[in-house]
Amino acid sequence: MNVSGRSYAPINFADKLAKFADQWQPRVIAELNDYQFKIVRIEGDFLWHDHPETDEAFIVLAGTLRIDFRDGSVTLGPGEMYVVPKGVEHKPFAAKEVKMLLVEPRGTANTGQAGGERTAANDIWI
Predict the structure, then answer these.
(1) 22-103 topology per CATH
(2) Which of 30, 51, 78, 96 is 20 to 30 A from 7 in CA distance terms?
């Protein structure tokens, strides 16, 4: 720590991911202006949803992620990313566990406007 009380330690994705095992429950690891960096573990199928007010960035750290769209899909492996444009309906899917980083504005619900029982608590830091 320095005089301002800030830590100059890097954020290690593997260390953060090792602190929780539950899936579909994003955890905030950093903020940049009004954007949050969230790590998450997922497996299986999610629900169709969109984010009418914001784009959403998916960055795969481990595993293979497929993002389905109504007219196609994109598959991402480790070290790859995709930005879903605002308002585009999508559905993430992982046959086996995927660990990834999401970048989106603070307060963005993981289920967008779809809501429901899969909606995760927001602004949970790890």
Answers:
(1) Jelly Rolls (2.60.120)
(2) 78
